[in-house]
Request: fold
Amino acid sequence: EKEDYNNTDNIHRKIPVVMATQHPDNASKPYWYKTEFISTTDEVEECYRSFCDMGCDEYMWDWEGKFVDEAVIDRLFHQYYDYFSIHHLGRDKFLTFRIPNIWEESGFRLARAFMSIITGNDAAGELGFSPAPVFEVILPMTDSADKLIHIQEQYYKSVRLACQVFSTRLSGPIEINVIPLIEGSSSLIESRKILLEYINTFEKRFRHWVEYLRPFIARSDPALNSGMVPAVIAAKGALSEYYKFQKETGVKVYPIIGAGALQFRGGLSPDSIENFIEEYPGVRTVTVQSAFRYDFPREVSVSAIRLLKRDISLKAPRIFSDNEMNDILELENIFRRPYCFTIEKLAPTINDMSRHIPSHRERIQHTGLFGYSRGIKDSNIRLPRAIAFTAVFYSLGIPPELIGTGRGIHEADKKGLLSKLESIYPNIKRDLKKAGSFLNKENLRILAGSDETWKDVLMDVGILEDYIGSNFMPVSTEHFLHRNHVSNILHMWRDKREFRQEVLSAGVIRRSLG
Reply:
């Protein structure tokens, strides 16, 4: 009997296809705003415009590592009453909180997020809207089932406490759905274990079945920690594992993938929809980040969102055999090692350059996952977040997609795994060519002249050019203009001059900051 991967008849909600996020990877000004920087107070309008103007189904309200407007639900209802009286939050459009990970951040911010949800339920009830405008939260850096259960227990206690302290009746659900956001490449490959343990524990604790799950596959942080190839194949392995879990348990899965516009962070942009859908069959929700929405003409972005909503569910997932999963594990290790070795050596350069990358949201101080010793074992390397990290390398004219990848190709070829890699990752040559068009070889040679580490990247480039059968070089006017900007950046950086405007100009050309 053929598996029906798209049926949503047995669940009591619409599954969103396109989730707008606050990831600040845009280089251009939003079509509705005056600067590239979007303040916390203006994110409420951005949420509304993502629904109304862009046609998105869902908006991620991000509490992780950033300041937020805690009255978001009340503001949406009162400022855009006419819209939300027709398009109900929680029924037609979805606001989903990415909550702080209390094992990495202070717990008081989680309490504030929960109170925002609880009071938002009251506001919806008073206006006669759907009773639960927010009923799902995303837990970043999920690495165990216990943490998912703990969040649900804490929400349950928060609701009960709010009712007792303020003598109010419950107007929304006493439980909250938790979306596990899994961020390490090795964690993604083995994530089915987390889901199995979760549903078993959930049933014992809450005494009913899990209706469905929306496991969230990260693409940016696995790439930052392990390199592009490990991030891609880990995401594909995770998708396979989720559908194996669905077949084994009967619990429906609707996987989400968090992809940025540049290949390193996922390669989802308005001009790459078909290739993206082909690369990640089985994904049911995708994130469209700031660059997707603001670095392309608005009508192009809106058209691309329509295409995603039409076609994303047409592709059945690819299920890997046990042997293929073992190949993914081996290839992940092969490509991760040279990448991590190089990034660890370049950390001082990355951190120094990152101070010049403009920040387009009100972030709280945060370190990348290297800081949690997850990318390099026993390492205390601290790195900027993935967008600034990617922007640093592109601003130097050295796309991070290439780092370690040549040496990985060489090792995979020696071990007879190259054809298996190409079967798992069919778009690898196309992705490398696309990134390689932004390579500034002169910059790379200058850097290699004063730091041995960059010579390994030169080696990567040589191996990759042999592998794809052509040289990396600019192929369009935009690529040549980009090369000029990043040449300026290198010399200005070495001369200790300010170069933020050059960084932005280069980002506008490649249609993403990082």
